[in-house]
Amino acid sequence: MTPTLVRHHRPTESSAAADGASRARDWTEIQERMLAPLYEAVYTRLEVGPTTRMLALGSGTGLALRMAAARGARVARAPDAGPHDLITAFTPIGCETGDGEELIRALGAALPSVERGSAVVLTGWGPPERCTTEAVLRVAGRLGDDGRGPRRDDLEDVARRSGLRPDGSGRVACPFGYADMDGAVRGLLSTRLFRAAVRTADRRQVERELADALLPYRRADGSVRMSNVFRYLICTT
User: What are residue 116's phi and psi, to 5 degrees?
Assistant: First the structure.
């Protein structure tokens, strides 16, 4: 039986800090590598290398930057480290209320640091029917009180409103694979997708309901695997 929704008390500053540190560690150790195929596909298509000066928006703990740097690119997180000839926004939009607007604001601050004709890469979830994680993420939408699950992204709209010209796109398979159920729950909770759910509902309830939703994807050896497709849109300034 699904547990009744329980509101939690406002966390103390120390508990919130500890929870944030735990999520950051889980993102680094478990979840971020799931998007490595997306990073690699984009870098290969754009021939990222020693002549590239890249600005990474929302780069998390930096795997995307490290992969670009391994190709010889000069990488930065802050616009004032420019000029740049490539901007990447690898945090996929389409699952959190307002994430498209957030990206537009970030692009508004970053675009003055790039040269005319530079490339800008936007990313989002692929078609919901090709993302088995969709059913799991409905838990985040329901407990977060916004009813959101993965939706078709608004990359072209973000590009238009940011003054960018679309110049190609692609889809990349990024399966989510975990050694066990605990790792799957921790990995998914480390993403921004569950921020609203954890703020709204008791964290232990979110963990229980997420684990229940993951059961169809648990294999005989205890591992958990879900197929997903992500989409990227290449634009020029």
Answer: -60, 135
Q: How many CB atoms lie within 10 A of CB 87?
A: 25
pLDDT at 146: 58
Report the C-alpha gap between 161 and 104 in whole angstroms: 7
pTM exceeds 0.70, yes or no: yes
Number of H helices, E strands in the chain: 9, 8
For 113-207, strand residue ranges (E) read: 114-125, 165-173, 176-178
Six-digit token string for 181: 């159920």
Please tell me the predicted confidence (pLDDT) of residue 7. Answer: 39
pLDDT, tens digit (0-9, with 9 covering 90-100), for 46-63: 999 999 999 999 866 689
Q: How many CA atoms lie within 13 A of 112 on its CB side?
A: 6
Paired tokens of 166: 């679309």
Q: What is the dihedral of CA 122, 128, 133, 135, to 10 degrees?
A: 140
- Tokens 């990073």, residue located: 39
The three-state (H, E, C) secondary structure of 23-66, written as one string = HHHHHHHHHHHHHHHHHHHHHHHCCCCCCCEEEEECCCCCHHHH
pLDDT in tens, 94-152: 767 788 999 999 999 999 999 899 999 999 988 888 888 877 878 887 887 654 554 55
Written as six digits, the tokens of 63 are 């795997």
Element spanning 232, H or E: strand 229-236
DSSP-based three-state secondary structure for 209: helix
